[in-house]
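In practice, a research group might receive sequence data for several interacting partners and want a quick structural hypothesis before committing to experiments. The following worked case mirrors that situation: the sequences arrive first, and a predicted assembly follows.
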Amino acid sequence: MSRLAGILLVLALTGCAGTGPVLSPHLPADSPGTAVELRDTPFFAQTDYQCGPAALAMLLEAAGSRVTPTDLVPAVYLPARQGSLQLELIAATRRHGRLPYVIEPLISVLLEELRAGRPVLLLQNLGLRSHPVWHYAVAVGYRPDADEIILRSGTTRRKLVDASRFMRTWENAGAWGLLVMRPGELPARVDPGAYIRAAADLESVGQIRAAYQTYAAATAHWPDNATAWFGLGNTRYHLGELEVAEHAYRQALRADPGYLAAHNNLAMLLAERGCYPAALDALEHALEVSQPGDALHGTLLETRREVIQQMAGNGTAAGTACTPMPSDN
Amino acid sequence: MSSKLTRKAGLYALILQFAIATFPPMALAGLIQTPEAIAAQQHELSRQQLSEAVAREDVQQQLVELGVDPAMALERIAVLTDAEIAQLNHRIDNLPAGAGVLEVIGVVFVVLLILELVGVTNIFSKF
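A structural hypothesis for the assembly, expressed as tokens:
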């Protein structure tokens, strides 16, 4: 048994020798040798074990938020674990009104974001798989000629790390990378679902304006995405801008006529203006296409009951008040 | 401050943070919030999402490692009937909600689903 382990160990040790350059296969064919370095990315040296607060502060500041690692320590540092959790870094980003976006776990994506001028917060495992030593650093560039990644790490402002060594530490940490963006910015490589969920998460913690800006960017980029329009409608509704909200709900329904939640919220909005027949129309339509097993079926029935009650109490607004607002164009 | 008191204060701070993070800022009764609408939708894995999943580099890598041609997987998905897609959705119905399809069920699971669709395995019949 121990002999087998010995053989495996030797295989594992020799298996690493003779690898080619790591970065160049992942760089664009037209400019493979061009180095990238985001020199303006601020640097905060970490104190004690607090690499999480330091790394996040660098990214928040790079995204225009004034903050120091000390401000972040209470929010993201766990003294008992001598570290920060990824989820807390994400939550703290939201609290500062910035959009956290976890990149696809690929080196090509990391390099692409750096080329787009965006530093990336990374998790590394500097120990072994079995005995991890977690560390957060910020990637600010790469040098294809030397096959190196440039990091802001620990107390070092400009740390050059051999790419193959970097890949080991990064992949052993799940190749986790976080972007911190101004709301309305889009990552270089973006998944619409993930981006819109990131907006919805901003919305759910009360960052309504930041969420609105993100949805607006999403609808501009994917005009046929019903969820993006729906989120735009909800945030505008929360901000009291009912005309824009109504337009957005109608756009959601144009993109997806079966979008139950948009029918529901449009009906709520119409009822608020006293347009009960139009509200009931929207609900009837939604109830026709939904099944009793659908998650939102019960909500639709409940909304209909409410609208009918309100109508009985208030009477219906007359004539022109109930044309769609604003007129679609 | 005694350490016990500090810990208690810390606990309250944590609870407060959790409360702020978990609940919507203001409740307009009856209005469906965006996260709720997303959660209601994401159990429906569409043909498009399946194709997108196969197009991802990491999924393709897994498929190739398992000896499946990603182009073939893509072709097979394109000709799936709605009934087959519904059947597929039925299988992921009992999975937890939260993030997107790939994030929730994971790359490996999607790969397994695709493998079964293209007839390489039939692990799900054992469930």
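Before designing any experiment, note the following. The two ends of chain B are 56 Å apart (CA to CA). Residues 16-28, 94-104, 122-127 of chain B have pLDDT under 50 and may be disordered.
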